[in-house]
């Protein structure tokens, strides 16, 4: 397996003193796969902010923001405007609810669902329904 120098530097921080990658290529591929596999786009039903989500279990949810939260999410923007540290926010309540609904509807696979052959499931067209008042 060949991993580009750029990917090696991105995932490892550099090279050894002898110019070799500081980890093996298959380790880099495993790390890249772990960081990107089964990420499903989900839009917040309240503000429309889109994030990438992976649910390894009912309790464990990984969220990858695709934009600056303080620029796209009203809750994060309010915290930033007050001078607060947005890194200390767990996540937005509305976004959490949107992710939970998407998972309950089957739009976000839980565990290894939808990826039994080890490849990334294509969920590029998955979006949660628009927010409905009173729903």
Mean pLDDT: 75
Instruction: Specify the helix fraction band.
Output: 25-40%
Radius of gyration: 18 Å
> How would the global form be characterised?
flat
Give the assembly state of these chains: single chain
Written description of the protein model:
The protein is of the alpha+beta class. It is built from 5 helices and 3 strands; from the N terminus they run H-H-E-E-E-H-H-H. The chain has a 3-stranded antiparallel beta sheet with strand order 1-2-3, with helices on one face. It has 2 domains: 1-36, no CATH class; 39-135, no CATH class. Helix 1 packs across helix 2 (25-36). Residues 114-135 have low confidence and may be disordered.
What is the topology?
Layout: H1 5-12, H2 25-36, E1 40-43, E2 50-55, E3 61-65, H3 69-72, H4 74-81, H5 93-104
Antiparallel strand pairs: 1-2, 2-3
Overview in brief:
The chain is of the alpha+beta class and 135 residues long. The chain is 33% helix and 11% strand.
Question: Which key phrases capture this entry?
Answer:
135 residues; alpha+beta; 2 domains; 3-stranded antiparallel β-sheet; 5 helices; 3 strands
